[in-house]
Here is the input.
Amino acid sequence: MRNAFAAELTAIASEDPRVMMLSGDIGNRLFDKFKAAFPERFYNCGVAEQNMMSVAAALASCGLRPIAYTITPFVTMRCLEQIRVDVCYHGLPVVIVGIGAGLSYASLGATHHSMEDVACLRSLPGMSVVCPGDPVETRLALRAALKSPGPVYLRLGKKGEPVVHKAPPDFTIGRGIVLKSGTRVCLLSTGTLLPESMSAVDELDRSGLTTGLVSFHTVKPLDDALLCDVFSRFELVVTIEEHGLIGGLGGAIAEWLCDRKPQKARLCRIGGPDAFLSEAGGQEYARKRLGLDAEGIAARVLRSLNQ
Amino acid sequence: MMKQTELSELDAVTRRVRGKILELSHRAGTPHLASSLSCVDILVAAYWTALRVDPKKPDDPGRDRLIFSKGHAAMALYAVLAERGFVPPEVLDAYCVDGGKLAEHPSPGCVPGLEVATGSLGHGLSWAVGLALAARLLKRESRVLVIMSDGECEEGSTWEAALMAPAHKLSAITAVIDYNKWQATGRSNEIMALEPLARKWESFGWEAREVDGHDLRALSAELAAPQDPRGRPRAIIAHTVKGKGVSFMQDDNNWHYRSPSDEELAAALRELGLA
Here is the structure.
């Protein structure tokens, strides 16, 4: 996702002279092409995320299209108040890009995990929250975010994620992408767990189910039409996210569900626990440990279906 | 150098502005009166002698920007914008009225001439960095003036911005610190070690100046001074008195939260020669 983001950013910047890149002292070499082509539009804002976010707001207030980029917890929670006051209160089109969503940087320790960021940013008035599922969605989401009239949080993984979409799908912020239709169970996967969700679908289908799958990349605003459809047709709707269960996609859809008349489908939420993962280990280990790998997802879906 | 006639006209402006601030606080029962009174001369010097702004074209892209970072003193800003012609005077009647536009801290776009909504401290200097970078990229000559409180120098984000501005030689920025020596609950230099304040800014790569924050002539000279040829941004430590202009409010921190009674308002307006 990181490389797709950098490549697409450079392409967009050559089309739109308003696009500016602010980095919080990460992305060494990643933005070399951008910097070489547009040196006056790249600022390394140092290890000072609060300042970076207010600077981004100020640039946006002058008609520029700034991107504020650094590791997920630091570009969201470290400067949450600047996002709230300078970006959201002023309704400015800043694109906030977090790299290292969820457990992407599991090995760096819990300071670098990001299991609460969606909950925080989703609560801010006017903020869109978009979690692309693969490098193709990353490129499309970046283009869409830079056209948005208001602030957008783009939650990305790291590098080397598999490409899910063989061809670019239609991508609109707030519209889920149906990848596979099904009958009893429908998985709504947001962000970095899309490949694991695909594998979980294969496993579930091997056990005799026909599992639906949606890349539910936008956590805010929710795709109301799609939710109405899946909750009226399926028996079980499952949310899958590399984020804590409190306040993420599952939480958002639980809120959505509460405000409606009883639906046919039950909701099952798969995500992280209300606890820090303080032990060492890479992303693959951490996902497995929290039941967020394909096997864990499939097992949880079957348990929920048979409840 | 400012002419004597101009100086006495500006002095009259500061009296009217202080009178308006007192009336607003009295009518709405709002706090931060003394914080508002301490920065009146800075605002008047800025809006009447230094900033290239036009009340008829408040959104002119090439204008200078004033960021009022100490948003709790919004009464002063509202009164100045009205006196300077950005806002019809009757708009101030809606100050802190239910459903009105003018809140105790300014909201985005609440009045023409308001550049940034503030109230949470320590944001203004970062805005200045962003606006100065934007001006550079868009090839505009805009200067950016930030009015900060001494309490704001306790916010870490202030010093993040203070580190970035000199790194990019943003000499278009002037930060004025309204150093009235008080914060909400006590002496600012006792609660946190602000001193030596000017040397702190200097050591961060700023051109630091110290001035009597109630001397219009001196303020005007500092604010209108050409940009530093070495590219340093400028910090002006304006030594001020909290509650300035009213004898029984000056340097008395009770007026951080208090608003005046009918009698106190009348006495204050008399002192200012307005009644």
